[in-house]
Amino acid sequence: MSVKPKLLAISSPGGHWIQLNRLSAGLEDRYQIVYAMPAALFTSTSLSERKVYSVVDVSADDKWRLIPCALQVLYILLKERPKAILSTGAAPGAVAIWLGSFLGIRTIWVDSIANVKQISRAGKLAQKRADVFLTQWEHLSDGQTIQYKGAVL
């Protein structure tokens, strides 16, 4: 029996988390998925068979939380050593993409389907370091750095 490579799946709550779970469900046969999410989701999500870490959520109103979030994400990356990072946003995912890229971990960003008119603020940050950057809206794709492969929802 071969050991499955690890994939870190990380996002903010709400629609980001729903989309991340839909993407991750299709990858469970190939990867051992380690989840990271804000603690608020622990009470509302079934986590019985998942390896889950709690991370601080960050918003534009509380940017100071980037520091504890980054430290938590760095700890997870160093402890778990994932082969890849998958995120649907927002700030915790962007932090993971940046840190992962510096550690040589493959990074994949899927911008939220809610961002119809433009790439999200966190997505613009992640785009600078992501190995693969996907949008769920064809008109936002440039065909090169921002790719469209369909929608998650």
From TrEMBL:
InterPro entries per UniProt: Oligosacch_biosynth_Alg14
Highest rank taxon of the organism: Bacteria
Cellular compartment(s): Endoplasmic reticulum membrane
Bilayer topology term: Single-pass membrane protein
Predominant subcellular localization, coarse grouping: endoplasmic reticulum
Coiled coil segments of this chain: none
Spans traversing the lipid bilayer: none
Keyword Transmembrane: yes
Sorted UniProt keywords: Endoplasmic reticulum, Membrane, Transmembrane, Transmembrane helix
Keyword Transmembrane helix attributed: yes
Protein's UniProt name: Oligosaccharide biosynthesis protein Alg14
Organism: Thiothrix winogradskyi
